[in-house]
Structure formats: C-alpha cells, structure tokens
Amino acid sequence: MRNMEIAWVFYEIADLLEFKGEEFFKIRAYRRAARAIAGLDRPVKELYAGGALKEVPGLGKNIIAKIGELLDSGECRLHKELKEEIPASLTEMMSLPGLGPKRARLIYEQLGITTVTELDKAARAGKIRELPGMGAKIEQELVRNISRMKKQARRLPLGAARELALALHEYLEQMVKVEAVTVTGDIRRWAELVDSIDLLAVVRNPDDAAEILDAFLLHPGLGEATWRDKDRVQAVSRWGVPVELIAVPREQYWFTLLWSTGSEQHFRRLQMTAWRQGWRLDRFGMVSRRDRQTAPVSSEEDIYRLLGLQYVAPELRENYGEINAAARGELPRLLELADIRGDLHVHTDWSDGACSIEEMVQQAREKGYSYLAITDHSTSLKIARGLSRERLLAQHEKIRELNKKWEDFYVLTGVEVDILADGSLDHPDEVLARVDLVIASIHSGFKQDKDRITRRILAAIENDHVDIIGHPTGRLLGHREPYAVDVEEIIEAAARHNKVLEINASPDRLDLSEFYVQLARESGVPVAINTDAHDRRRLDEMVYGVSVARRAWLEPSHVLNTLPLPDLLRVLRK
DNA sequence: GCCGTTTTCGGCCCGACTGTTTTCAGTCG
To answer: Going by C-beta distance under 8 Å and a sequence separation of 6 or more, which residues neighbour residue A368?
Structure first.
C-alpha cells in the first residue's frame, strides 16, 4: 500500500468518527496521523519494517498497529466496521458548507437521508426547516451549495488530479507490453481544474493495444468503460472525473501527444497553420498534401519547427495568442522551477506548521535554494497558535543565531500578519519594522462585502512595512469561493505602492489565479511564488505556483523570488 | 487518538459568526 492510500484510510476514519459524534481530540489524532503519513518521504512499509514509525510525531501504538493491519491485509478492522455502519455518501454530504456532523446526523436519523441527491429533494420540499434547530435560511443555503457542488463535481483540482494520474501512470508502467507512458491532456497543460485525466501509452506491438486497454480497466479506481475505440478507452472513476487511456504505436506518439495535450482550440489552430503550408495534421501523423509523405518527426519541437513556429510549452496552449507569437518568434522566455531561488512563505511548529525551523531550512537547502523566509501566523489567529509579539521576537533571535551557521544560505525573519476585520494589522508598526519580510493576509471576515474587504486589503497595501499580500483572493479550489475582493483595484494599488502580490502555490489555492497574474504582469506588479508550506514535504508544491506563472506568460524577471539574495534584500529594505 | 526532562493521567482548542432561539448550538477557519 502506498503512503497516500494509508493516509486516506485514516482521513476517512476521522470523517466517520466525526459523524458518529466521537470526541474531538480522537478525531484530530487520526487527521494528524494521516497528515504525518502523507508527509513522509519514505514508504511506510519500509519504516514499519524497520520499527521507525514510532519516531514519527503523531503516530502512537494504536495507529501503528492499524498501519500493520493495513500493510498485512490491505484493510483494518475499525475502518471496515465504520464503513459497514455508516453509508459512505454521508461523508460527502458533510462536505457541504454549513452541514457538519451534528446536522448530518440529525437529517440522517430523522429523515433517513444518506445522499446529496436525497438531501436536495428534501430541502426543496421544505422538509429540512421542520427539523429542530433548522430553519428556512439553512435550507436555502443547502440548496444553493448543492447546486454549486453538482456544477463542479466533474472537475478536479489540479493537485488531486495529478496525484491520481501519477498512480495510474505507475500502474501502466508495470505492464510488460507498454513501452512508455505519459500523462497528457488538461494535466499536462497544468489547467487549474481538470475535466478528464488523460494518459497516453506507447505499445510495443500495435496488436497489443486492446489487451492493454482491458488491463487498464482492471484498476481498482476505475469503473465501467463509458466509451471505447480500437486504441482508446474512457471510463468513469471513483474520483468523479472520467479517465481516458490512448494506446498508440511509437511512430504515432508525438502526434497523438500533441493532439491529446490540446487545448482543442490550440490544436485546431495548428491544423490550420499546417494546412496552409501544405500539410495535413491529425492525431495519427502529419502528411504532405503533395506527395503523401509523412513528416519525419522525433519530438513535439520537430512538429512546431516544421510549421515555422517556436516550440510552444504545454502551459501556453490555450489559443490566447501563443501561435501568432510563436510565428513571430516572440514567445516569452518562460519562468522555470530552476529559476526560483527561495520560498518566502512557510510555517513552522512555532505556529501551526508540523516541522521545526531547522527542518524547513534543511529541506530548502536540499532543494538548492539560497534563502527561506519563516513567516508564521500572528497573534489573533488563535487556532493556528499565532505568535505574540514576544514569541515573534524570540523566534527572530533564534533565526539570527541559526544564520551564523552558513555562508551560502540565509533565513529571513518574517511574519504572515493578519489583516483584521477592521483593516488594521495584527502587529504594530514598530514590530513589523524589525522584520525582513512581511506578508499580510486575510484569515477572517471572509463574508464581508466587496467594498469593505477591498478597503481592508488596500489599507494593508498602504502600510509601508508590508511587502507581500498573501493569497489575495482567499479561494480554496473546489471548496471555497474567493472573497468578494476587487482584484483589479488591488493590482492598481500594488503598482502605485510598489507592493508584491503572492501566487500561493498550494494546489488547494493557486491564488492569485492565472488571469489576475497576467493582469499583474501587464500592470508591472511583480509576484512572489510561495508554497505556504506547513511541513517540509509541501515545499515541493512550488511547481504548482510556477505553472500558474507560466500559464500567465511570466518570465523570471516578473518574479521576486528569482532574485539573488543581495538583490532581494535590497528590494525588501527599500 | 497522542504525548510527557515537572506528569502514564489529564491536557490537547479558541473565538467569531450565523441562525435559531428567547439564552444557545452548530459550523468554520
């Protein structure tokens, strides 16, 4: 069993216990354990065998025993019993905003409702308001949230989609008759929401395609095939989005890769370009219209070159003008992960992070960064154990001590200071003035109207000590709408006051989104791409933030944390 | 559930907001 699968079991146990009304701390212990497992960088199996699991914070005797059960038999008794007792669809119901364990249980026990669809029907029929403690407003809110949930049910946030695609990739790779596998489609273009998980396999022998498709469908995450062709199959999946596999011979690979990567509009534009130049381009190949000769191609670059175009990175293939730019040789020198020299927004165990400052720094050094800013939460964010002024200053003392250790790495003192509901900041100016890097973010009062919430952020931008506005719209992909902020106005103000906007790279956020990042670029506002990591593993999520920047056509010069340390410090001290 | 250089039991997580209520329960970050 892979680490993620084991973590998943514990998350599910926590959800089910929550429904049962179990004690809060027990539920939290399971969630913590799940998070700890998901964050391990070695296989659980290995650590278990070596007796090293008990060293992992959050894993105790009971949970380790359950991990043992899972490794031995693929299941554990508690999980199995809970699943038999409680319909799984109830946890989906509980994911609706406003519907926690108590209300879900009430609805289940009083009305026998177990699915979102039944709940929708009951709410529309006015049955929910009749329950004790419920009313018309809650009922309406449920109807609204259900319709929103249904609308986006078939689209998966990029991070989750990519995890699943990689698991399927691994599965296919083990097949003897498969020569190579690539994840393609929306995921290869790094689209923030994914309509379909697409994979492309190269078969050693064209006659084996059908057999490979059959074997693919045996994957436990996949259901019935919804559609099938000689070399393609689409199936429903456990995760709500369709999954598609295409199996092609080697000589067809580059063309099918180009076609399946899309976007549809980009490929159509390429077809038109090809036609005008005497080629016929489709997913099977590119053939001269004059002599029926197939174009000699051994990469995607070759195809673009034959069409007189610069190579277009998958992230740009949205028909937003990239083909014209490629024809003129004017595509940007896109930002790459390797251009990033440090992460400017991370949390440690001083507030709600899981790792120590040293561990985060160690990981950042291993990634080849030359700096890292420690930006724990501020006083008001009690749930995250936000740092009081005294603890913040103590932390900075510790960081200064730590910095004596290296010549080639620098830890910036920092803070993620809350923008409070009235627009003031959660630390006084004289504290902020002593900090290398100040990120100001909103963590409360999400429901304020556009005017109020925009004015709050504007006030933060106008504060001389603030360097970066963190996750500027507050959205959680697929979970929470952005707050009502007027982003255009924020961008204009940032331009006036020389402030930096964050691309929060957490795949749950991707905030700012690519559209606004593009607007920021056009307005001359630099961005900082930060992971907001709460444990060292999640420093790896930088790649998601980079993908947003690439999709917005950003070059290294648009990004604050591509600067070498001395330049960065000069900018921050200005 | 986990955790412990004071503790093997008793902490661990707190406050705002909302909607339902006549003084509070449930949800959320």
So the answer is: none
Tens digits of residue pLDDT in A334-344? 999 999 999 99
Task: Give the list of residues 6+ apart from residue A436 with CB closer than 8 angstroms, or none.
Answer: A373, A412, A413, A414, A569, A572
Distance CA A172, CA A392 (A): 50
A550-561 pLDDT, tens digit each: 999 999 999 999
Residue A3's nearest CA partner among A60, A61, A42 is A42
* pTM, 2 dp: 0.86
Helix (H, G, I), strand (E, B) or coil at A198: strand
Q: Which residue is nearest to nucleotide B15 (CA to C1')?
A: A382
CA Rg value for chain A: 26
Task: Map out the domains of chain A with their CATH numbers.
Answer: 3-152 (1.10.150.110), 156-255 (3.30.460.10), 262-327 (3.30.210.10), 337-573 (3.20.20.140)
What are A468's strand-pairing partners?
A: A439, A500
How many Å does it take to go from CA A98 to C1' B18? 10
Contacts for A490 with CB less than 8 Å, ≥ 6 apart: A454, A457, A458, A461, A469, A472, A501
Q: Among all protein residues, pick the one whose CA is nearest to the C1' atom of B11.
A: A25
Nearest by Cα to A372 from A363, A385, A381: A363
A115 in Cβ contact with A93 (< 8 Å): yes
CA distance A473 to A463: 19
Q: pLDDT per residue over A508-537, tens digit each?
A: 899 999 999 999 999 999 999 999 998 888
Amino acid at A395: Q
Q: Which nucleotides of B are covered by protein (CB under 7 A)?
A: 1-3, 11-21, 25-29
Between the CA of A134 and the C1' of B20, what is the distance in angstroms? 7
Joined together, the tokens standing for residue A166 give 């990689």
Name the closest nucleotide to A382, judged by C1' and CA: B14
Q: How far is CA A383 from the centre of its chain?
A: 23
Q: Which residue is nearest to the C1' sugar atom of B25, using CA?
A: A133
Nucleotide nearest to A136 (CA to C1'): B19
Angle at A346 between CA A343 and CA A352, to 5 degrees: 175
